[in-house]
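ARCHIVE RECORD
Type: protein–small molecule complex
Small molecule: adenosine-5'-diphosphate
Source of inputs: curated submission
Record status: active
Notes field left blank by submitter.
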Amino acid sequence: MPILVMKFGGTSVADPGRIKAAAEKVRGEVENGSDVIVIVSAMAGRTNELVGWVDSIAPFYDAREYDAVVSSGENVTAGLMALTLQEMDVPARSWQGWQVPVRTSSAHGAARIEEIPRANIDGKFADGMKVAVVAGFQGISPEGRITTLGRGGSDTTAVAFAAAFGAERCDIYTDVDGVYTTDPRICSKARRLERIAFEEMLELASLGAKVLQTRSVELAMRYNVPLRVLSSFEETGASSGTIVCGEEDIMESRVISGVAYSRDEAKMTLTAVADRPGIAAAIFGPLAEAGVNVDMIVQNISEEGRTDMTFSCPVPQVTRAEQALQAAREKGQIDFAELIADTEVAKISVVGIGMRSHAGVAARMFQALASEGINIKVITTSEIKISVLVERKYMELAVQALHDAFELDKAGQPELAAKAN
Ligand code: ADP
Ligand code: ASP
Ligand code: MG
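STRUCTURE (tokenized, with ligand):
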């Protein structure tokens, strides 16, 4: 029997009625001749509520207990989905991560899936079960504790199951009908893409487009899992949604594929740092040890042997970064005049594999922001993306301006010069 993986996110299983609508889609695939592995998220809002309870009791929590609490939302949905399918006469049962078992690393709160043995679920399929409903987002560590995979982690559970079971396809059902040129909730002109390349999706996800968890795209790319994003709120068929695939399978020629934003960025500046060999290592070493995810880095021109060093990190890590840098200063490893944290910034990025072969993307991006009077605080680039930090109050305006500047609402692309070889 061909195996299909179908994942339903929080809004797609928000209440018993939504679970029933999702179960109807699963029944349709069973009737079409597939064995199905359904991966479910917690009901909408539930994981946030659980995280809130943990934070209110223990701001510096034991991550093992955090995982014990926040993984529970998915258990409820898995059981309810299995019951709903049984009521429809579809042979189904639920599985929590540890029962499969989904073996992960011990990095609580951000664990990595290491192995998914097939035997238990295959055995049940052989006995006539048609649907295995698996709680997403969770697994079990080598120490036997429950782990979670990081927010949005059910996407990764789904792709990992698709890889482990050699699934024909991994369908991610969500509250939008595909991957758009930008978040359709903040730009009304956003256009659904028929296809997007793994590499572009990887950048968009890691730069803030939460439609897929970054790790799920990495896995899909590594194991060549046919991945599709589509709506659980609409009638869907073979051509619905967006296919995430290798770039060789993309017909539409475009320079930029999308604009992503990340709201929770902070810009940290160390002033009057000694400009000497080894200073960057002395600053970023302690930050890495403290688990701060440093993203952009800028070192200013030095005056009289002193320079300013600026970097960005997620807002929730600002306190940790400050503590690590003050501790390094007390130990005499670094010396600076001031540490200034600006937590009112957002990162906006344009992404497209066409940037490899076309010039002028940066110029057009900066021009579009300038025409809206938006000041750029930090810039970084890589082969297929350009990111800027701007004041957070301009975030939506910046996304819309860039969407317009690159004419992403149209299938064609504005003329940009080809790069000279
Ligand atoms: P789920 O609960 O199904 O996992 P998420 O809320 O995690 O759903 O992801 C879907 C959301 O991602 C959409 O509602 C949309 O607001 C947001 N999103 C951000 N960027 C994009 C994009 N480029 N295309 C589609 N959706 C996007
Ligand atoms: N429920 C988890 C979260 O909200 C996992 C997921 O939905 O993918 O992050
Ligand atoms: Mg999600």
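CURATOR ANNOTATION: The chain has a mean pLDDT of 95.
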